[in-house]
Design goal:
Shape: globular
Helix content: 40-55%
CATH topology of the largest domain: Glutathione S-transferase Yfyf (Class Pi), Chain A, domain 2
Structural class: alpha+beta
Strand order of the largest sheet: 2-1-3-4
Distance between the termini: 26 Å
Number of helices: 9
Number of domains: 2
Largest sheet: 4 strands, mixed
Strand content: 5-15%
Radius of gyration: 17 Å
Length: 211
């Protein structure tokens, strides 16, 4: 049995849920409410010393960092593939995924936003402006990459780890009022994925710990 330690609205946890669903892997969900700081509980820190979600427990191993989990799932369960066979194509897919995971997501996650509010005294309008400041150029770059390589999905016509990362980031952007009108390809992929069972089941609203 695979156990996923996560949080319903965590974009990083959501990525892994999508991949598990696409790979048709059953898993047990263990929730940690980030708003209450449950990720810092000693019992969870014994699992993931970084005190962040997600963590994935498989057999006797504990995996941390969502991109490492996506790569592990791809190697352990190669069918259906979430990376293309061609090495250059794989690099393109990883590039989109990493643009989200390394450049966009960290600047808008809860601990950064809490620091803006608590340490720097930012109000909610300033928090939204902060998120939009970084989301706009990141989405613009991804929009260009999709124009070059995309189809029904971010790369080609089958889902990849790029989509696992992109879809949660779109949700996060909309949650904070980021205007996506200049990114029609991104919006089209989001609309397409919304009707696919693997993506729908992974949506935050459909998690057992959702508000």
């Amino acid at each position: 049995m695979i156990t996923l330690h996560g949080y319903w609205r965590s974009g990083a946890s959501w990525r892994v849920r999508i991949a598990l669903n696409l790979k048709a892997r059953e898993y047990r969900d263990v929730a940690h409410d980030l708003r209450r700081g449950e990720q810092a509980d000693a019992a969870y820190c014994a699992i993931n010393p970084q005190a962040m979600v997600p963590a994935l427990i498989v057999d006797d191993a504990v995996l941390t960092q969502s991109l490492a989990m996506l790569e592990w799932l791809e190697e352990r369960y190669p069918d259906p593939p979430l990376l293309p066979a061609d090495p250059t194509a794989r690099a393109h897919v990883r590039g989109i995924a990493l643009t989200v995971a390394c450049d966009l997501h960290p600047l808008g996650n809860l601990r950064v936003l809490n620091s803006l509010r608590q340490d720097l005294g930012a109000d909610e309008d300033q928090v939204r402006a902060w998120i939009a400041r970084w989301a706009a150029p990141g989405f613009a770059a991804i929009e260009t990459l999709i124009a070059r390589h995309g189809g029904r999905f971010a790369y080609g016509d089958t889902p990849t780890i790029a989509d696992c990362c992109l879809i949660p980031q779109i949700y996060a952007a909309r949650r904070f009022g980021v205007d996506l009108k200049d990114f029609p390809r991104i919006r089209a992929i989001d609309a397409h994925c919304a009707h696919l069972p693997a993506f729908e089941r992974a949506h935050p609203a459909n998690q057992p710990d959702a508000d």
